[in-house]
Every structure is written in structure tokens, then in C-alpha cells.
Amino acid sequence: MANKFSKQKGKPVAVGDWTRINSNLYIYRNLRTRKQNWVAKIRTGSGESVSRSTKTDDLPTAIQRAIVIYDQIQDRVRNEIPLSDCTVEDCLRGWLKHAEKKLSAGGAHQVKAAFTNIFEPWLINEVGHAEGLKTKVVSIKKRYLAGFAEYRERLHENKYSRTTLQCHISCWNRVLNYAKNKLNMLDKPYLIPKLRDSQYSGSNSPTTAVVRPSINTFSEEQIKVLDHWIRTQLLRVNGVLNKNIVNTEKGQSNKRIIRADGSTSSNGDLYLTRVNLFGTYWLMRNCSLRTQEAQYLKWKHVKKSTITNLDKASKHNPKGEIFVLHIEERKSSRLAILKDKTRIVIGPFWLQNIFDLIKRENPSHSDDESFVFNFRGVRRDTQAKFFQKVLKLASEGNKYNIDCTSHSSGTGFSLGHLRSYFISNALLTRHINPIVVSRIAGVGLNTIMNYYLTNEPTSYVKELMGGHRVTVHPDLLQSIHTLKNPF
Fold this sequence. Notes:
Layout: E1 18-22, E2 25-29, E3 38-43, E4 49-53, H1 59-78, H2 88-102, H3 105-127, H4 142-146, H5 148-154, H6 162-181, H7 211-215, H8 220-232, H9 270-287, H10 291-295, E5 302-306, E6 321-328, H11 332-335, E7 342-347, H12 351-361, E8 374-375, E9 378-379, H13 384-396, H14 416-428, H15 434-441, H16 445-452, H17 459-467, H18 474-480
Antiparallel strand pairs: 1-2, 2-3, 3-4, 5-6, 6-7, 8-9
Helix pairs in contact: 2-3, 2-6, 8-13, 9-12, 9-14
């Protein structure tokens, strides 16, 4: 049946032939375009009208395509999926509303940053959509999703961390899965293949060898240089960091002025900032604390004790003294699965010198309820920028020309890499049982196997896991006395 559209209110503006297929579906020819393709006009059960192009000017083909489009629209209505195609930004916004209630601010920020810094440039430069995050999800072709890992590889001259790439992929898949399964915004998932399922044509594919120790952790040379600089320069009164900060006696630049309470006199109490970083460094370096765990450590969580078997005591510590730190779990993913929200971490006996130093410089805020690292009673929020300055100074001030700011692959270091160095060193150098490391570091055994060790554990590791008594920690207690005393 052919007719002309009238120009009444509510009718399409275009005037052309039309054909009714059923009571809720008809097609008309769009004469305003050069191709004059047929357009399907669909009325949903709620009374809403939807137009979709059949992308053909052949009537029989247009009728077949219109019926397929009609079925898809009705299926969306039945499953409460939005009729209009959502954008990547819509999916991210919906997920963030969920994340604000379920996850920590840091977890949500990580995903948001990945979409802003990683996926928006990918959508613009690789997929070819200038809209960036406003790109409609349905317009992203499968070949671009499958080629995301290879795209990221092309941006890096050196080896690209497998764990970092997998983290970016999981951020995308988490948001898109939630948009489909929980928000009903998509009729099918638009996921990036997992790293193990991806194909790489280039030779610069992500490494599968011992990832964290070789990719984004301090090397032994770097940690030696950093240890030396922290120990000799960070608290030095007339050093490059403190010569204009610490108040010294006239004519004696290496002799600090002591206040009545025993603390060091300095401009704005900035010397206390140096002391806080000094303590944070050695705690994270030797006790596997996360940055946030160190920030929330209180004096009531620090207890002095002794080992039960004095045969394990060293000649430098014949009494077998140790520190027991009760660490409050701060990682949201672990809090969701753990019954006990604290874990026990054993610290070497020489931590006493560091704790005494902190109390001496901050005597007014050293009670049991105070945070160990605080500034005038307020918990230290971050020491990241100051630590970056220290890394730069340590790199410039060593005679071996060793760069401590980043790995040779280009990965920049932060305080958190002190923890990954501890775990890597415990597993690969001191050969401590992975189960023991898992307990003291608060990290899953799967994470240790997949990220800190090779994909196939060595026979030695398998033997340890099969025959080691995890209720006793002889390897751990023995290794405590091999940790270097900074004093």
C-alpha cells in the first residue's frame, strides 16, 4: 500500500512512499537523503515511537530488515533495556554510582582514571571516534576490542607490564559487564579479551616472566643506593634537605637546637616530616606494610615481644626481641572476605630506635590513640611528593649513576614499591614459603603465584608448600635477624 504523509502535527516531516507491515510497524522512504533509504517506524507497548534506518532502498530487503529491527526493539522493551544506545560515559556513570556505595574512594578513582587516561585516547586515536567517552558502545567494533592490548604495546618502547595491562582491561570489563547485567543498558557485552586470550602480532608482547620483580620493583642496586641515602642524608642537620630548615647553634651548622620538650627546632616543624618519612620507609621496606596501613598505624598497635625459641636469636639480639605490629586491613577487597580485620606483622628489634626517634620529635602526640606518623596530632595523609623528591636526590647524589626514580622499563617508583620489593625479595632471594609471605604481607596466594612468581612454580616452591608447617614460622623468624639495621 502506497500513500503520502500528510504534514499534520505529529507526522514525520519527510514526504514519501510508505508501507505498513503491522499495526505497530511501518516503513517510509526518506526523501531528504541522497540514497533515499527506507526507515522503519516502530510503536512500542508504552506508546513511544522509535525510528531506525534499514540502510537499503530496496523494498523487499527493507521489509525483512524492518521486521528484524522491530523484534530487537520489542526485546529491549521486554528486558527493560533503554531504546536509545548508551555511551561509554553512561556506562561509567552508572558504575560509579554503584562503586560509591560498595568500594573505597581509591578503587573507584582508579577505574575512572583508567577511562579518562587510557580508554578515551584509545577511542579517539585507535577506534576513530572523536567523541571520546561519549562514543556509543554499539559502534565499537569487535576487532578494536580484540586489538586493545596490541594498541597499548605500540605506545611503549620497552616491555609492558602484564599486570598493568591486565588491570586496565579489567577496569573496562568491570564497567561494561555491570552496564549489561545490572543496569540493562546493553543487549550484549562489549568486552576486551583477557590478556591470556589475546593475540599479538608484534615481538613486544607483555612479558610472562617474574613480573613484579623484573618490571616494576626496585632492583638490589637501587635499594642499596636508596638505603644509604636515607640512612646518611635524610636526617642530616646540615644536609641538602635540612640546611635551611633546622635551626642550629650559631657557628655550628651540624649542631641542632633542642626545644624544651626534646624535639628538634625547625621552621614549621618540617624536620618532623623528615622523621616521619624515615620511619615510614624502614617500616614498609622491612615489614611489607601498604602505604595506607602505615598511615593508619597507631601506637597501641605496636607491641614489644620475644621469640619463643631463643636458639633462633642472633648474637646482636641474644634476647630474641621483636616487635609485633597489629595491622588494620584497609583494602576494601580484603575487608569483604576476611573475618579478622587485623593481621600480625613481625618487625625486627632495631625498630625500637626508629620508634624512639619518632616519639622524641613528636612528644606531645605519642599516646596510645595517636597515629605513629602524625603532624601536630593529625594523621599523615600522604608522603608521596616528598618521597619523589628523595628519590630524585638519591639518584643525583650517588657515585654509581644509578637512577632510583624508575625502573629501566620506564615504570616510575612510589612508596608502594617498597612493599613489592619486600615480597619479591622474600620469595626469590630468601626463599621464604609463599604461604608464610601470604600471611605476613596480607596478599592472596593466587596473587603471589600469578604476579610475584613465574606462572609455573619451581620444584622448591612446590616442596615448601607441600611439606611446610604453616602454624610455625621458622623461616620468617630466621630472616628477621638478617634485615639491615639503619642505625
